[in-house]
Design a protein that fits this description.
Elements: H1 2-12, H2 15-68, H3 73-84, E1 89-96, E2 101-104, H4 120-123, E3 130-134, E4 142-148, E5 168-175, H5 177-213, H6 218-233, E6 238-242, E7 248-251, H7 253-259, H8 263-266, H9 277-284, E8 292-301, E9 305-317, E10 323-332, H10 334-380, H11 385-412, E11 420-422, H12 424-441, E12 444-449, E13 457-459, H13 461-477, E14 483-491, E15 496-503, H14 531-541, E16 545-551, E17 555-563
Parallel strand pairs: 12-14
Antiparallel strand pairs: 1-2, 1-5, 3-4, 4-5, 6-7, 6-10, 8-9, 9-10, 11-13, 14-15, 15-17, 16-17
Helix pairs in contact: 2-3, 2-5, 5-6, 10-11, 12-13, 13-14
């Protein structure tokens, strides 16, 4: 009986209404899904092209520097091989305009032909980079970026057997497997989201028709509405819908988390009392000419909290085209922007590492000679105070340069850890004892909060001592007129050890906070800019995290989180 009743209810709804809703919504969502997928693919292509161009420019810079040092084909081939060892790079090839390989990340390929299907003579005269996708024989496809290889404006003669005026083309092959995997994942997520929204829209239309047209369908309407509400509430994006009177009628769980309000407190309230001005402007800008708006912007939420948002706003209409409300979808982009910054920072560090490994050793040999000559002249002219003073200055400057190069090499080498269970509190006490005399001379009070009974941490003691000493010395340098250095250790609920190093010094400017851990960034006149970059690298190698909080004139706090489980 109940089954027959349900069938009668559905028969009362004209089938063309459901078919019409599907016919309108499916192409709409399919179009937006297709646009979103294409946008992600274009972004991936642009990122790969930019990475390829960056690698080419990096290699050209190395070749240009090598030409100044009279490098031959062997050094250039070695530089090519080292450049091609970066993650995600399949190969690096340099050919002349006739297609003969003059340098290759696989040395056995030198002398073979490559690029016969391209107009290499024309490419050797063009500076703009081009790209293509090369099908892999057995593995994933390769994204190939190629253009003219020209380290400098005049003809390049760095390859044996080539004339001074020869022209070259460089090919960079990038592995597309990670990009394909990310693209496939984005496509799946986009399709799932579109499908869920499509189901919600269809269910909402059918529910409204049943509620408005037929009293006998109320039971079925309740079930459909419950399904729709459940889907909306658990969507991974914030959903806010307003009625024609600009009152909130939908406010899901994600929106509650984002705006810090509960749905019970906002349903039925004017949208102007709930939503930020930028979001209200988008909703009010919807109309016949602009049925949908999509924007990305930093939105002020709560008490001065800025959150990067992607907002999609659209008009909700009934079957007759009348406006029944407006809907906005909110997506928090904080994590995405953080990942983008990490990718950019990793690319910068990779470039620094490549240059460091190739240049640092070449600088050290001349420095040793300079120091030897300075020592010789100091001994030879020991009776002339002015000459002795000049020689001492030369020796001090050579030693300073040698320290910079040592830090540079340390930063460029792969991080190798010798882990063992270590009493972190004891390690901190030892480091504090090292700087205790310096702190006393500057009138700085050292406060240590090191509770007993902390579990041992699987760390490299020497590396972590380097981290603590660097942070302590930076804190002392920030407090010229005395102050307080506070060091504390505490165990967190997520099985991590939290180490905090706080000072009452000059602090760090807001615009410099994002650059503190970048190589060569320093505000000290005598600093190298590598200390905190190495600290960041050591903490990350331990699987930990380092955070920074600072306010100019009040001080700085570094917080290190280290996993107890290793």
């Amino acid at each position: 009986m109940a089954s027959t009743h349900r069938q009668k209810i559905w028969l009362l709804v004209p089938p063309w209404v459901i078919l019409g809703a599907v016919a309108v919504l499916v192409p709409l969502f399919a179009f937006f899904t297709w646009e979103n997928v294409n946008r992600h693919m274009e972004m991936s292509t642009r990122l790969l092209l930019e990475k390829g161009e960056a690698l080419i420019r990096s290699f050209e810079a190395g070749a240009r520097a090598g030409e100044g040092m009279a490098w031959g084909s062997f050094q250039l081939q070695k530089l090519l091989i080292e450049t091609a060892q970066q993650p995600g790079v399949d190969y690096l090839i340099i050919t002349d305009e006739e297609g003969r390989i003059v340098a290759d990340s696989e040395p056995d390929m030198v002398g073979d032909a490559y690029g016969a299907d391209l107009d290499l003579a024309a490419l050797s005269r063009q500076g703009a980079a081009q790209w293509r996708i090369v099908a892999g024989a057995e593995g994933p496809d390769t994204f190939e970026v190629y253009r003219r290889f020209a380290p400098r404006d005049e003809p390049y003669g760095g390859f044996n057997g080539q004339t001074r005026g020869a022209s070259y083309v460089i090919f960079v092959g990038l592995n597309m497997a990670p990009v394909r995997a990310a693209h496939d994942q984005d496509t799946r997520n986009t399709i799932i989201t579109a499908a869920v929204l499509l189901l919600i829209s269809i269910a909402g239309i059918v529910s409204l028709l049943l509620a408005l047209g037929y009293r006998s369908a109320r039971a079925s309407l309740s079930r459909v509405k419950a399904l729709s509400d459940s889907l909306v509430e658990h969507m991974p994006v914030g959903i806010v819908a307003v009625d024609p009177d600009d009152r909130i009628m939908v406010f899901n769980d994600t929106a509650e988390t984002l705006f810090g309000r509960t749905s019970e407190a906002v349903i039925g309230k004017p949208s102007s009392d709930i939503l930020p001005p930028a979001c209200l402007e988008m909703l009010r800008g919807l109309g016949h000419e602009r049925p949908m708006i999509e924007k990305e912007f930093d939105c002020a939420i709560g008490q001065g909290r800025m959150v990067p948002l992607e907002v999609i706003a659209a008009v909700l209409r009934d079957d007759e085209g009348g406006v029944i409300g407006r809907i906005a979808l909110f997506r928090d982009l904080s994590e995405l922007q953080h990942l983008r910054k990490e990718v950019e920072r990793s690319q910068r560090l990779a470039a620094v590492g490549i240059l460091a490994a190739g240049v640092a050793h070449e600088i050290r040999n001349p420095l040793s000679s300079l120091k030897g000559f300075a020592t010789y002249f100091r001994q030879r002219y020991g009776g002339v105070p002015e000459d002795v003073k000049v020689a001492d200055i030369m020796i001090q400057e050579v030693d300073r340069l040698n320290r910079v190069i040592t830090e540079l090499l340390e930063f460029s080498r792969p991080m190798e850890l010798k882990r063992k269970a270590t009493d972190l509190a004891g390690l901190v006490r030892h480091a504090l004892g090292t700087i205790e005399g310096h702190a006393r001379e500057k009138g700085i009070v050292v406060q240590a909060h090191l509770p007993p009974g902390l579990p041992g941490a699987p760390i490299d003691p020497d590396r972590m001592t380097q981290v603590f000493l660097n942070l302590f010395l930076n804190a002392l340098a920030a407090m010229d007129r005395g102050g307080v250095l506070t060091v504390g250790i505490a165990r967190q609920e997520d099985d991590t050890l939290r180490v905090s190093v706080a000072d009452t010094g000059t602090g760090i400017r807001k615009e410099d906070l994002g650059r503190v851990f970048d190589p060569y960034f320093t505000t000290k006149s005598s600093g190298t800019g590598l200390g905190l970059a190495i600290v960041h690298r050591i903490v990350e190698a331990h699987g930990g995290e380092i955070r920074l909080e600072s306010e100019p004139g009040k001080g700085t706090t570094f917080t290190i989180l280290l996993p107890i489980g290793g």
